[in-house]
Amino acid sequence: MRKREPHWQSAEDRARVAAELIEEAESLTETGGIATPAEVKRSTLPPPLRVALPPEPPVAAAVDTAAATVPAPAEPVPPPEPVRPEVAAREAASRGDQDGALAVLDAAIAVAPDDPVLLRERAMLLAATGRYGAARRDLEVVVNRQPTNADALTSLGVLLSRKGLWAEAVPHLLRAVEAEPASGAAWYQLGEVRNHLDDLAGARKAYERAVELEPRHTKALYGLGIVLDRLKRPEEATAMYRRSREATTR
Questions:
Q1: Which range, of 62-76, 117-131, 235-249, averages the lowest pLDDT?
Q2: To bridge 216 with a disulfide, which of 64, 137, 208, 247 should be the other Cys (CB 3.0-4.6 Å)?
Q3: pLDDT tens per residue across span 51-78
Q4: Which residue, 108, 130, 146, sits at the end of a domain?
């Protein structure tokens, strides 16, 4: 103990030591206090490394970049148009699949039994395969419901002509040209029927009307030549035959 040391016994020494202690205390207060052992150890370490972080991009630029990468919404693609049954049937028939074509039309007519286009299409296909009775029934359904349907009337006249029913074909073809006077096909078929019935004047008139409407109608020109031959007008007949050949080769 210091108080046991002899040089601490005088009052002068004690005053001097007290003054030094007070001065040291004031100095520690000004420098922030007494350092802890951890602080002393830290003071011996090398200075810390300083890492510079990259600056953050501006908010507006980030938004613009994000907007640029977002794809524009795709425009809606409309669904493909459904293929009409008669078109599908014609394509099947062109490939030689007559049964497949009839199946398509049968299914469509089961849904729409009054559709004149489907009925006429099936009738034409039935006639092409020799089923004239079924074809006639379909066409008669159409003309009974639509008495002025020139296409169905003409088709029925053609069908009856193929069966040799020339006289039965006449009224249907007359109704066809009355419903559609500009139909060259109907006038031609009327000329054919009347020629077979030996109505030469009526046949000539029908053929000539068909040629007026369609000057390059090769069959009407040829039929007119036949009628003129039968009327003993060979020069005019020869001219019609020539026009028919020219129309064929052009």
A1: 62-76
A2: 247
A3: 555 666 555 544 455 455 666 677 777 7
A4: 146
